[in-house]
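#struct-help
A.M.: can someone run this one for me? Single chain, 336 residues.
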Amino acid sequence: MYSIIRHALFSLEAENAHQLSIQALKLLGKLPISLGNLTDNPVEVMGLCFKNPIGLAAGADKNGEAIDGFAKLGFGFIEVGTVTPVAQAGNPRPRQFRLPEVQGIINRNGFNNLGVDNLINNVKNAQYKGILGINIGKNATTSIENSIEDYLTCLRKVYPYASYVAVNISSPNTQNLRMLQYGEALDELLRTLKAEQTSLSQKFGYYRPLVLKIAPDLTQSEIVEIADSLIRHQIDGVIAGNTTLSRQSVVGLPNAQQQGGLSGEPLNSLSTQLILQLAQELQGRVPIIGSGGIHSAASGQEKIDVGASLLQVYSAMIYQGPKLIKTLVNQIKISQ
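D.P.: on it. Structure tokens below:
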């Protein structure tokens, strides 16, 4: 059935197909049906109990419009966003490009979203009671020097509604954003956000884990430094990783020359290597959420085996449909 749906969707421009899919999932969320029949595979990470280790990656539902629909696909957790303090249009269209020969996607969206207040309203209206991550970023018009204020604004607003908060400093589509991954800029960001997390946990009487999302395009020495910062600032988790600027695995393919971040199957080995290197540095002190290129049970299991505690998917689901979620949930083995 999904092959027929995909054929229709792929006849549309990529972003139009995505918007149509969100509307369909919003409708699914309102219907008294489930695409379940999944094996229970619970896992506890960051003090949270996930019904299974397979999550929806950020970027699929930037505004939290279709949370209930995505939940019915069988995800163990859902991450919405990236959201910014105020609405922004993102980069000019077209900005999403398919590479069907390798089940890949290139995007240069640029954090297009309707703003944090809109997302919170959608979260409040959702019926979903599972683990919900909210991914936060900075507005394109905010300078890197002032970016911490954007993250603080979002953290304060989403804290009461998130199961965990993911801090996105690794999108390649917001100018200079990845500079926040390095040195004193990273330390200042994590130090400030950790202090605010402590203050908010005292204010509300509950603790919401703080997770950092990093890029796969890091050197070994940069990974070592990031791991050290995560441990020193007691960050609760790390998402490894975001999309890549590398085109090594797609040279010569149609659309491969497009600017933006590459996701999907071509990212798989790069993200697995990032997880392996991070795990060697972190030694279990900070849990890793593996994201990037998962397209089969084998590719997901490999990420678990090298050190990931949870997994996130998005691009492969566009090519394979909801059956991928069922396959991953039923076949991925977690050792605790």
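A.M.: thanks! The chain has a mean pLDDT of 96.
D.P.: also worth noting: The CA atoms of residues 102 and 265 lie 6 Å apart.
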